[in-house]
Each structure stands twice: as structure tokens, then as C-alpha cells.
Amino acid sequence: MTIAGTDSGGGAGVAADLRTMALAGVHGCVAVTAVTVQNTLGVTGVHTIPPETVAAQIRVVAQDIGLNAVKTGMLATGAIIDAIVDVAAEVGIGRDRPIPLVVDPVCASMHGDRLLAVEAMTALRERLIPIATVVTPNLDEVVLITGIEVVDDETQRAAAVALHEMGAQWAIVKGGHLRSSPRSADILYDGTDFLRLDYERIDTPHDHGAGDTLASAMTSALAHGMSVPDAARFAKGWVSESIRWSYPLGAGHGPVNPLWRVANY
Ligand SMILES: Nc1ncnc2c1ncn2[C@@H]1O[C@H](COP(=O)(O)OP(=O)(O)O)[C@@H](O)[C@H]1O
Ligand SMILES: Cc1ncc(COP(=O)(O)OP(=O)(O)O)c(N)n1
């Protein structure tokens, strides 16, 4: 299941998650948190869904279809986070529970449009991250959550340690925004070992939805029963090729393209 917002441009959020989940061989269910008015140039409107409706979407799917793994994306408000954390305890989602939880702590779009209210940062830090099986921030989110500015490998590792100490079972600090590096390397940490997930940096402005695609590929792999390190390796390869095959849609940042798996270009 993806618990996330919609993107009218179809590049990020629920649309990106469902594309990847389908191609990765799992049936994706949806709990919508917000409707965004969005294209490749940015977000111009947000309409949030009532927290009890978000919780109800999760509950009815858990009770009927069942859940093998869950991912969160744009959550919009602290009240929505509180509702998700409460229903997660009720149906068994989260670390040390039967259903693994991947938390992509989406705070803003790549254009700087706020997707999580400032008041929600405390609930994110103190309630959601502590129940995450894996948390997957980009570097802007790392600063907002931990106060650590990542500039190199050492600070990237320090951020992963801080997120683990906040309660996440595993932390992946994504290096996509570390443009000074010729590689695009993410660091995975479980409290003991660091795993570096390294890939060439692909030179394209069309990377909209990359973070969602990484997290939903990882969620799909966890739903198939893979371990977290194997799921992270799978997701890294998946998102890298999706960026390679991204396309120039609209006047801004076009979407990444998980259809590389099936399309004959
Ligand atoms: N230009 C790029 N080339 C290769 N991989 C990239 C590139 N940009 C981002 N990635 C990878 O895509 C994933 C999403 O990263 P990032 O862009 O930092 O997240 P977000 O979309 O949340 O801002 C990470 O695995 C990151 O390393
Ligand atoms: C509805 C919605 N959810 C998430 C995002 C951010 O997506 P992300 O994959 O982090 O990609 P970029 O914003 O970096 O393209 C979004 N924009 N909209």
C-alpha cells in the first residue's frame, strides 16, 4: 500500500508509486492523504483529506485484502501523521510488527513547495520515524529532520546514525542532491553496518518522482519477502534505470520512467 498524495501531472505521489508497484509485480493499494494541483513546474494547490478518512482507507484494506508492506509519502499535516500512526498500531504496520513500513519523509517538492506543514515536523520526528522499518530522506529532508547538513560521505553517515537514533530500524540517506559528487550514492545503516549503494550520476533534469520510485520499489521488494539490504539494492537499480529512461514532459522537470522494464524503445 502507498499512503501518499496525488500529483495531477502524474510524475510523483500515488501515480509514481502504483506504476512501480505494478511493474515490480505487486498489487498496489492506496490511501490518499492529499490532492495536489501540480505539473512539472511546481505545486499551486493542496487539498488535504480528513485524517479519519486516511485512517479508514488503511483499515478497510488491511481488514479485507491484507497488507504485505506499506509506504508513506506526502502526509501534509500532523493530524494525518497521528491518524496513520494510530491505525498502524491497530493493524500491525511498522518496525517490530508483521507489516514493514517504508517512510519517505516528503517535506517539499523539488521546487520548494511545502508538502508537509511545519507544525507536522514534531509528529514526523517523534511518532512516525520511530515506527519506520526504513526511513528514506533526501538531503533537504535530512536538514529539516536532524539539523545535519550533508556535504560529503562522513556527514551522510552521521545523518544516517542520527535517523537510526531517532528510532528508525534502518535509515537510507539519499545522495541524489549531493551534486558535487560524480556518483549518486545512498547510505543504508542499521545501527551497526553502513552499506553504500553506489550508481553513476545520470545527467538529466528529468528526475521528478525519483524519491517516490525508490521508496515504492523498496516497498514492493519487501512485500515479496526480501531483506532490507536486498530490497535497497533492488530499489537503487530500479530508480537509476528509471532516471536513465526519464522523459522531457512539460516545461519543467519531467518524470522518471519505470516502464524501462517493459517498453521497447
Ligand atoms: N542524477 C541522478 N543519477 C542517478 N541517480 C540519481 C540521480 N538523482 C537522484 N538519484 C537517485 O534517485 C534516488 C532518489 O534520490 P533523490 O533525488 O535524492 O530523492 P528525492 O526525489 O526524494 O529528492 C536516490 O537513490 C538517488 O541516489
Ligand atoms: C504528491 C507528491 N508527492 C511527493 C512529491 C515529491 O516527490 P519526489 O519523488 O520526492 O520527487 P520530487 O519532488 O523531488 O520530484 C510530490 N512532488 N508530489
TrEMBL record:
Q: Which residues form the Pyridoxamine kinase/Phosphomethylpyrimidine kinase domain?
A: 7-257
Q: Which Pfam families match?
A: Phos_pyr_kin
* GO MF: kinase activity
Q: Which CDD domains match?
A: HMPP_kinase
Keyword match Kinase: yes
Classification via InterPro entries = HMP/HMP-P_kinase_dom, PM/HMP-P_kinase-1, Ribokinase-like
Catalysed reaction, written as an equation: 4-amino-2-methyl-5-(phosphooxymethyl)pyrimidine + ATP = 4-amino-2-methyl-5-(diphosphooxymethyl)pyrimidine + ADP; 4-amino-5-hydroxymethyl-2-methylpyrimidine + ATP = 4-amino-2-methyl-5-(phosphooxymethyl)pyrimidine + ADP + H(+)
> What are the entry keywords?
Kinase, Thiamine biosynthesis, Transferase
Parts forming coiled coils: none
Which pathway does the record list? Cofactor biosynthesis; thiamine diphosphate biosynthesis; 4-amino-2-methyl-5-diphosphomethylpyrimidine from 5-amino-1-(5-phospho-D-ribosyl)imidazole: step 3/3
* NCBIfam families, sorted: HMP-P_kinase
Role played: Catalyzes the phosphorylation of hydroxymethylpyrimidine phosphate (HMP-P) to HMP-PP, and of HMP to HMP-P.
UniProt-recorded name of the protein: Hydroxymethylpyrimidine/phosphomethylpyrimidine kinase
